[in-house]
């Protein structure tokens, strides 16, 4: 159940990311690219885990999900002005704090990414904790 749900969340996150950049033509910033680097492989890890019925998928996926969450947390702090843009790796191209989309007045692309990575990290941590009992 956790594996299937994780696969669907990662797939939805990747499809959403590609939809924003390729269909809506929102250019991804540097931090968005880093988050993609940690999200896209999760689809393959979860997919192979489903196909091979490999229970160890969570140990491969958790470091990627946690790292993606840390990057997305930093991105959100930067986006909402908690951290100065002077501390940002976004020196060339689109600013990482550029306001491209706000659903319902507060749901942003960086927030969607953080929710995705936090949900995946929580599910994977739960699966590891449940298995160790």
Question: Which class do the helix and strand fractions yield?
Answer: mainly alpha
State the CATH architecture: Up-down Bundle
For the secondary structure, the number of strands is: 0
Largest sheet: none
Q: What is the string of helix and strand elements?
A: HHHH
Low-confidence stretches: none
Mean pLDDT: 89
Terminus-to-terminus distance: 18 Å
Q: Give the proportion of residues in helices.
A: 55-70%
- How many domains in all? 1
Q: What fraction strand?
A: under 5%
Rg on CA atoms, Å: 15 Å
Q: The CATH topology is what?
A: Bromodomain-like
Question: How many DSSP H or I helices?
Answer: 4
Q: What's the CATH first level?
A: Mainly Alpha
Shape: elongated
Characterization of this structure:
The chain is mostly helical and 133 residues long. 69% of the residues lie in helices and 0% in strands. It has helices at 2-23, 30-52, 57-79, 109-132. Helix 1 packs antiparallel against helix 2. The protein starts with a helix and ends with a helix.
Tags for this entry?
mainly alpha; 4 helices; 69% helix; 133 residues; elongated; Bromodomain-like
């Amino acid at each position: 159940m956790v594996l299937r749900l994780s696969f669907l969340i990662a797939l939805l996150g990747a499809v959403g990311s590609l939809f924003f950049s390729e269909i809506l033509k929102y250019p991804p910033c540097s931090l968005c690219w880093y988050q993609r680097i940690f999200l896209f492989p999760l689809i393959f890890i979860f997919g192979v885990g489903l196909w091979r019925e490999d229970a160890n998928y969570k140990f491969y996926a958790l470091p990627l999900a946690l790292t993606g969450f840390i990057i997305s947390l930093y991105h959100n702090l930067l986006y909402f002005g908690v951290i100065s843009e002077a501390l940002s790796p976004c020196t060339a191209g689109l600013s990482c704090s550029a306001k491209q989309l706000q659903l319902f007045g507060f749901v942003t692309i960086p927030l969607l990414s953080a929710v995705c990575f936090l949900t995946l990290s929580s599910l994977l941590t739960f699966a590891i904790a449940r298995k160790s009992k």
